[in-house]
Design brief:
By secondary structure, the protein is mainly α.
Length: 177
């Protein structure tokens, strides 16, 4: 049970019930992190809009976005998000446990292609120590064909994941998978 009051899928009303319906239609369940965000329907709506955008991103692939979330969550020590995103890679992207473990150890060992690994590395570096990102880092990713908008989206995705990790750890979401 989280440390703050939330709405369950059975008790949700109004906008929260509507948003839960969208989540359930897409995922088949309303995961614990989504339920936590029901304490602030505005935040819940913003999170749903963000996830809808990223799930349909025109240039950054599903696996790369999932790896961004996985690796960004490691620094924040959000065991729920680490395990959830590892599970997503295995169950939805057909990665092996060994591929996930190798990616966690070193992005260079990831089955992502070179372009994706570079973009993910930039996003994760920014999430872990934004002051360490250099103009050379940006230029190296740009040279691989990523646009400035793609880089902004990837770094934003990592930053939002860290923010969510803080919320989930603070309010003690429970594992539901």
């Amino acid at each position: 049970m989280p440390l703050i009051a939330t709405q369950s899928p059975d008790t949700a009303t109004g906008e929260v019930a509507e948003l839960y319906g969208q989540v359930k239609a897409r995922l088949g369940i309303v995961p614990a992190p989504i339920q936590l965000l029901s304490a602030s329907p505005i935040w819940l709506r913003q999170q749903q809009e963000s996830m809808s955008y990223y799930m349909n991103h025109p240039r950054i692939g599903f696996s790369a976005l999932t790896v961004i979330r996985l690796l960004a969550s490691i620094e924040a020590k959000c065991e729920y998000c680490i395990d959830r995103n590892a599970s997503v890679l295995i169950n939805m992207a057909d990665w092996t446990l060994e591929q996930v473990a190798a990616t966690r150890e070193d992005i260079a060992k990831s089955p992502l292609d070179e372009r994706e690994r570079a973009l993910v590395a930039l996003a994760v570096k920014a999430a872990h120590d934004s002051l360490s990102v250099t103009a050379q880092d940006i230029e190296a990713v740009r040279a691989l064909g990523w646009s400035d908008g793609d880089m902004l989206d990837a770094v934003n995705h990592a930053a939002r994941m860290v923010a969510l990790d803080i919320l989930f750890n603070t309010f003690k979401i429970e594992r539901d998978f």
